[in-house]
Amino acid sequence: MATVEPVRVERVQLGVRMEKRMVKVLKGLAEFNGVTLGQLLENIVLHSFEAVPGQEGEMAASPHGKRALAAITDLKRIYGMDYDTHAAHQFSDDDTGEAGTPD
Fold it and tell me: How many domains does the chain have?
């Protein structure tokens, strides 16, 4: 079997703000997958950059298999993450109800 050369990368510390329940779900998913939170986020981002063949501009690849998707459903229920992709533009950081500026 051929050996695969590691891809050399330089990692940087990143300061971002994210919705609290989402972070809990992400941390739980990272633990479920046996990876760090940073590794999980890198994997999700890399997959989001990959189009599904024949669906370019319509669909992105997903790094999550059936077991992970079931775990995500459970984690969302446990941590009260009761919103989906389409709610992100409605997030509000304060009591005014106005959508916050993305970080």
Answer: 1
